[in-house]
């Protein structure tokens, strides 16, 4: 079992040095606090709305508002310019509202002065809700209804990833933990027996048990047999859930398991590449997703080497941020060789007293990478072309039917050079385009069949909304 500790988020004086100019962002965020998956329908709570709005407000103060520490070059500070922001989320009762709440913090109502329009005939039209700004949110298929589902892996439809995740249940590590923790989970029955039966209160349902108790710890005024839930017991419940979920989301010897992280990597590079290729167009990209995407990406990007807390499930409202920046003059838009990328992570709700921290990607020691090194590192595991996804997943029906070839008996036609090089997000909604960086890099985009979707068995989770507990939890 991986040892878990609380992720210490040190307050940094600034996320960017004075000489830097931020040119773009990619933000991947988890939803805010929600109700338990054990009692569907799962919905975003008032606390969750507040958490996500607070995070959005911090990102506004950091990257958008006039005079902000790292204001994005050319960004509209008050009235949103729709071409400058792209946001997406699964059509889910938790993730979609979270995305909307984050955007409200990012671009709040502009008030009666800015929020009005004068018509030709002199009529002054006031924008409703004190100048409320409407920002479109794109929907992605993968993850739809995921916060109501116990089997997140199934929502991705990658057959080989599902098989890989299920293989964990036959591993010696799993068997050892299942047997050694039997007594521990039995002791928790008085706390959960109103919802989780005795035959399911075990390590196989580690996340479901954690989720149910975690939600109760946040919201319930009374908890049955609450004396059982000592601090040590709560930490053990969470640590076991961390171990369970990480092993379903990633396995170094069977990377197909992390397909969610692999497709997310392709989406990240594609989005940032759009900013680069468009000379600053669409500088802000925001996507909301479930914790499995975080964990599989953590494994693929070797973030666990930077900090072992990345083995854990991220807390509610956690964010991964990719800053695109330059030390050169920002106008005209810098050449690719003058661009850098920095990865930052914050566990839980972001605020002035708890901010994102930079971590090195790919097992390196430097927290900043050149644009070329970043793209090269991501493309070692990114999967974005539909044909590559279909081949890696072993799928031959649905969206993969068109890639099936009868010529050589191969189940897919999409090696790294066989498809059109176009970009597709169609596959299960999570498959973002594989970044056609050949235009900028002069090299073929590398598509590796590494990765495997996340979770097969996670019945319910509720990453610790206990603000103090921070290990990538979700």
Automatic annotation (TrEMBL):
Pfam families documented for this protein: His_Phos_2
Matching InterPro entries: His_Pase_clade-2, His_PPase_superfam, Histidine_acid_phosphatase
Q: Which UniProt keywords apply?
A: Membrane, Signal, Transmembrane, Transmembrane helix
Q: Which residues form the signal peptide?
A: 1-18
Instruction: Indicate the transmembrane segments per the record.
Output: 426-451
User: SUPFAM superfamilies, alphabetically?
Assistant: Phosphoglycerate mutase-like
Q: Which family does the entry's similarity section mention?
A: Belongs to the histidine acid phosphatase family.
Spell out the protein name for this chain: Phosphoglycerate mutase-like protein
Q: Which organism is it from?
A: Lepraria finkii
